[in-house]
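Trying the structure run again after the queue cleared.
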Amino acid sequence: MALENNIQQLLAIDGAMGAAVIDQASGMALAQGGTPGFDLSVAAAGNSNVVRAKLATMADIGLTGKIDDILITLESQYHLINVLDGPATQGLFIYLVLDRTRANLALARHKLAQMAKDITV
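Done. Tokens:
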């Protein structure tokens, strides 16, 4: 139930069209919601590849630290990936889809970062 509440909070961000909490190893969405105009389950699996590829590249080039977020800018949407790193959320990430015409990107990133601290599984 907690994850469903988190999804509803994410969808309350101005311009939010879809949101999911995803296991990066399997690509499975633990919770999802919204109507982004595409299959969030398929996007979850694909974006887990993005996260794993970035983590592998960081390891290959010797970068340490964590990923705060990954931004993918499309013609009509922003796709935000926030990699979670809490003890209970290690290996998970949030995927948030925003309507580019309605969202304030800076404010959405700020709210997403704040909400990411409260995600519990």
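The beta strands are 16-23, 29-34, 69-73, 77-83, 92-99. Worth checking whether this holds up in the mutant runs.
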